[in-house]
Amino acid sequence: LQGDGGLASELGSMIGKIRILFVGATPREDDVIRVNDECRAIKEAVQLAKNREFVEITELNAATPDDLRRALLNSDYEIVHLAGHGDSDSFLLHGTCGESPMSLTSLRELIRMHSTVRCVILNSCNSASTLTEPIAALTIGMDDSISDKSAIEFSRGFYDAVGAGKS
Q1: I need a surface site. Which of 93, 102, 116, 120 has the fewest CB within 10 A?
Q2: pLDDT tens-digit series, residues 10-45
Q3: How many CB atoms are closer than 10 A to CB 45?
């Protein structure tokens, strides 16, 4: 989904460092989803990029809703990348006793309090299948199920382009 601008104009207009908050969550006990591999692929893409000095990644693993809220309060990010399980209504974060779903409406409200966030990536199954309103100016999500391999390859390609200064 796009809000008020296209991907090229939004990311291309960022001045200085592009700061990325990678939020990984696998709260289910039987989880085999590979968010750590996805984060590693993103870091590798940035490390190998010609513009690597302009891209900064902060990892937030086993994230709870409070972790996400605090991270957004403590630093300014242009991209918030959520990786893990989700559905058409929520993204699963960690809770005190397992999973803690964060509704996409709550996520939108939280993100809107942080004006530096221009792009939100929901790299989880069905995360954009019912979105009618973007979470940030640029919202990238999946409208169906996605395999781990596809999620990782999407992230690798996306951040290869970001690191190369492309849209």
Answers
A1: 116
A2: 554 545 789 999 999 886 666 666 888 999 999 999
A3: 22
Q: Hey, how many other C-beta atoms are within 10 angstroms of the C-beta on 57?
A: 19
- Looking at the chain, the number of H-run helices and the number of E-run strands are 5, 7
pLDDT digits (tens, 9 = 90+) for 112-132: 999 999 999 999 888 989 889
Alpha-carbon distance 73 to 76, whole Å?
Answer: 8
| CB contact at 8 A, 122 and 91 | yes
Q: Residue 49: helix, strand or coil by DSSP? A: coil
Residue pair 124/83 in contact by the 8 Å Cβ criterion: yes
Is the pTM value of this prediction over 0.90? no
Q: Is the dihedral of CA 141, 166, 3, 54 positive or negative?
A: positive
Spatial neighbors of 24 by CB under 8 A, at least 6 apart, are 35, 36, 38, 39, 59, 60, 61, 62, 63, 83, 84
